[in-house]
UniProtKB/TrEMBL annotation:
Gene Ontology BP term (one): ribosomal small subunit biogenesis
Keyword terms: Cytoplasm, GTP-binding, Hydrolase, Metal-binding, Nucleotide-binding, Ribosome biogenesis, RNA-binding, rRNA-binding, Zinc
Gene from which the chain derives: rsgA
Protein name, as recorded: Small ribosomal subunit biogenesis GTPase RsgA
CDD domains assigned: YjeQ_EngC
EC number: 3.6.1.-
Binding site for GTP: 112-115, 166-174
Subcellular location per the Swiss-Prot or TrEMBL entry: Cytoplasm
Cofactor(s) in the UniProt record: Zn(2+)
Length: 293
């Protein structure tokens, strides 16, 4: 028997809908892959192999997985904000970046509503977000109103699985509507809509993009929740820019109060963004208080 490889786009009442080369197949999970105590035997985003009888016989290893919504193999977390209205909240942006790194998803930053700001204000935002360069995080300025930057985003997320995260009102439904013609999220209505109706019973769905790839229909990442970071070493690992040349005097340096700390020196020389370092300190205090003890 020959096998087909595809990606699970949604799961309804024990059926798995698997997309492969533009077609969707209704599949079932073969018995040996089912473990009754687990809800994540096979989930949306999984790359699977199935036979002509529609029986899924293999689930490939995942590159990442999030729980709410339950999705695997997300390529990009688009961290979306508006330039204004609501005000660009840099703290929340950092929290979303922390989540992306924690869950091993590549972060991308999108700033919408550039039609509402002056060139000077745009420059100001670019300056504030300068540190993204050192992190190799791509930054897009867009306007869903004036159709600025939308084609570049379309190109960027082609053939990938993309999740959108960001606060309410920044235009997430507006951009999802533009990414695919027959996507029907009501602007200003997403949150309400996703809480009721068919979405609740159906669960998460990967919406296919015209040019290949998928977006996740549920805005999974809130901008206020810190990820459940286990300890300080893990926290440090979520700041890739802290990997500086040379080693700190103490091998177990946590880059806070220690002398001869290469990270603090790099902050002093402006090689590491002070905003980011201060965000790190705030995270450290928060985790110490609420989680590590
Ligand atoms: N000026 C301007 N307004 C925009 C733009 N994009 C969206 N808006 C407006 O911003 C408001 C919020 O847009 P939504 O797409 O509903 O935002 P959302 O992020 O999905 O918000 P939630 O549904 O609350 O999560 C709406 O009134 C949109 O018309 C833009 O590029 N420029
Ligand atoms: Zn150090």
């Amino acid at each position: 028997m020959s096998y087909i490889k595809g990606v699970v786009t949604t799961k309804i009442k024990g059926f798995y809908y698997v997309a492969s080369e533009g077609k969707t197949y209704e599949c079932r999970l073969r018995g040996v892959l089912k473990r009754r105590d687990r809800k994540d035997n096979c989930i949306v985003g999984d790359i699977v192999e199935f036979g002509e009888d529609g029986a899924i016989t293999a689930v490939h290893e995942r590159s990442n997985m999030i729980n709410r919504p339950l999705v695997a193999n997300i390529d990009y977390l688009v961290i979306q904000f508006a330039a204004v209205d609501p005000k660009l909240d840099y703290e929340r942006l950092n929290i979303l970046m922390l989540n992306a790194y924690y869950y091993n998803i590549k972060p991308v930053v999108v700033i919408n509503k550039v039609d509402l700001i002056s060139p000077e204000e745009l420059e100001e935002i670019k300056e504030k977000l300068e540190y993204l360069k050192a992190l190799d995080i791509d930054l897009f300025f867009i306007s869903t109103y004036n159709n600025i930057g939308i084609d570049r985003i379309k190109d960027y997320i082609k053939d990938k699985i993309t999740a959108f995260g960001g606060p309410s009102g920044v235009g997430k439904s507006s951009i999802l509507n533009l990414l695919q013609d027959n996507m029907e999220l009501e602007v200003g209505e997403t949150s309400k809509k996703l809480k009721r109706g068919k979405h609740t019973t159906k669960g998460t769905t990967l919406l296919p993009l015209d040019n290949g790839g998928f977006v996740i229909d549920t805005p999974g990442f809130s901008s206020i929740e810190h990820p459940p970071v286990e300890d300080v070493r893990r926290l440090i690992s979520l700041f890739p820019e802290f990997e500086v040349e040379g080693s700190c005097k103490f091998a177990d340096c946590i880059h806070i109060n220690e002398p001869a700390c290469r990270v603090k020196e790099a902050v002093e020389r402006n090689e590491i963004s002070r905003d980011r370092y201060e965000f790190f300190l705030r995270c450290y205090e928060k985790y110490k208080l609420e989680r590590w003890n």
